[in-house]
Structures are given as structure tokens and as C-alpha cells.
Amino acid sequence: MRSVKTLATAAEAGRHQREWFADLRRRVADGEPFALLNADVPHEIFRTMDIPYAVSQWWASLVAAKQRSGHYLELVRQRGYPDYSEQYNSVTLGSAFDPEPEAGPWGGLPRPDIVVGDATGDVTRKVFDIWGHEPGVTFYPLESAAENEVPANWWELMPHRWEQAVGPARLDLLTAELENLVRFLETTTGRRFRESRLREVMALVNEQEEWNRKTRDLIARTRPAPLGVVDSIPSVMLPQWHRGTKWARDIARRFYEEVRDRVDAGHAACPDERARLMWIGRGLWYDMGFYQRFQDEYGAVFVWSMYLAIAADGYVRYGDDPMRALAARFAAFTDQLYTPPWSSEWYVKEARLHGIDGVVHLVSDDPRGSYFTARALEAAGFPVIEIHADNVDARTFDDEVVRRVGQWLENVVLA
């Protein structure tokens, strides 16, 4: 089933992404340096220095949406690497091995000069290490630190009291690493870093995410839901890849205004809404129509995904030192989504805020605390069904998953 998109901002974001990628390919063809970045590293450095970049996970999502992930995973397997682990980054790695890269979506991903990733786990680090063995590609790793003290209600601390939430040791480490990254980029690309420009970028990101917070809160309190995740994901996530631009700031504002207008007009994603569902996990990029099925058949609307919620709670950072504030944005980013109790308490908070009736939890090969997330939600009174599949590898997903979720809705959530 094809997904149904009705928001003008979702359509505009899709058009902008195509135009941006065509321009990126032109810039790279003209000899500009090109960087491939992991989703959880500070893109704002590259925005500040006007270095063209793309995000590994975004490319994998596009490949999956075009039903091409199997091709790239086959190229990974042909090189002797596993095609069943960390597919979200492995799919993009496969593009490095493609003998006909221009046959890829939208003309193909250019070969990067620089790859930057964080050492979140052993597998992720190894995927990016392989990039570094490719001719002409330099891999620049960032550490992934941990902290024993976990703050309660980190989402309340992060905008202004991030030093307290994250801890000075983690911030010292990442700030120093980002300063070293800047020196490396200045040396290798010839681009200059200006702190005044970083301040502008940080201010634009904060404005963008403040609009996303207003949108999240509006959706959370509106019954029935004015839209589902099929609309909200592209409207918030594509602009996230352009953080620090006026376009991203402005479309976040228009996204809020469009949702507000729907609420004022009494428009509902499903007028006969019977249940509000939460989707925990990455987007199911090869089958976005999955979410629509249950809305049409059961009146069960997926009103929550991590993309709008983490935009609302996870990015806003105010402070006089822009580099340290940027470090605070990412030093604990994976904790917020995947490490209990950071993540589990946040998911429970969001479920309560949105009036969730049931949680569908996508558990991939790298679950990152999924057990504790599910248990925390169940302990708080929210029924959870876990589906084991990978969000870009269609081989792991079949109609049995849809059948199981339907039965769970009938027998548990709607009973």
C-alpha cells in the first residue's frame, strides 16, 4: 500500500530535497569537497564552513524507498562483509562498491572525500572504518562517551541547563574533538571556520526546533489527531537534514501553521479515531503505507514517531559558547533515544503526553536498550507489541508482521 501525504509542507520538503541533491552533485562535480556524515554527529560544523554533505541514514532511507536496498546489501556481501547487521549504514556503504554509481537513486551518491561517524557501537565503528579504506576517503571518528549520573527529566534541563544534564567531562571531550575536527577540515578543504557564522547557524537551529516543539505539543493535545506520522515524518525530518538554514527554519514554522490550520478547521486524520498509537523505532522506509493500513481498517492512528518528538526535546541549546552548546546537542544524543533510563523515561513521558493507547516497537538488529524501553512502557500501563525487522532491509519484513499487529489491535488495544 502506498502512503498518503496530504500536507503541503511534506510535498515542499520532498521537492526541496531533490533540488538540493541535484545542486550537491553539481558542486561535487565542480571539485568541491564532499562529506558523508552519520546522523548523530554535529552537521552544524559543515553548515558553518559551507562544506557540502549528505547523511548516511538519509541516503539509506531513499534507497529503501526506491526498493534498492537489496542491491546495495548484495554489494556489501560480495566484499565479504555481513549484509544482515547495521543495515542502516551498510546500505550506504554498498554505494562505495557500486560499479555503476550513477544508476543509484537521483543519479547516485557521489564518492565522499571525508566520512565522519561517532563510535556508538562496535558494528557502527567498523562500517565507517571500511569507508576509510576506500581510495581517496578519509574517515574521521568521534568518540561516544558515557556518564554514570543520569538526570531525571533531561528534556526539561537540555535547553538551558545542558551542562548539568550532560556533565562537564563529556562536554570537555566532545568540545575538544569538534575543535580538532575544525582544524582538520580547514587544513584539508581550505575552508575557514568563523565562530560568528556558527552562532548564526545555532540560532537558526534553535528557532527551527522551537517551532517543532509547538507542533509536537499541538498534535499531542488535539483529539482526534490532525495528522499521522506519514505526514509528520517528511515534514520534520527532511528539514532536519538542513538544520541551520533559513529554509529549514521557515518550513518548520509553516509546518506548525499548517497543522494549526487543520486543528482550527476540525480536520482529522481519521474522524472515527478509536486508538492513538506510538511508533518507536526508525521509519519503515520501504513501506510507509504500513502506518496507513491500521488507520483505514481499525481507526488506529499512529500519532507519534521519534522524529518530531526528538526535534522538540533533543536539539534546542542556548548558551554563550556556541561550540560547547553544539557539543551539548550531541554528547548524549544516542542516550536520549536508546539508553535507559534516559530513553525509557522519555518514551513514557511522550506516551502520556499524547494519550497513547498502544505502542508498536520496531526492534532491529541493534536494539540499543529496546528491552528496557518496552518494559518501562508496560509498567506505566501502555500495551506494547514488538516487531523484529530492519527498517531499510525489506527481507526482514513480511505480511505476518501486519497480521500480528492487526490481531494485537483487536485483542488488546481495542478490546
From TrEMBL:
<comment type="similarity">
    <text>Belongs to the FldB/FldC dehydratase alpha/beta subunit family.</text>
</comment>
<dbReference type="InterPro" id="IPR010327">
    <property type="entry name" value="FldB/FldC_alpha/beta"/>
</dbReference>
<protein>
    <submittedName>
        <fullName>2-hydroxyacyl-CoA dehydratase</fullName>
    </submittedName>
</protein>
<dbReference type="Pfam" id="PF06050">
    <property type="entry name" value="HGD-D"/>
</dbReference>
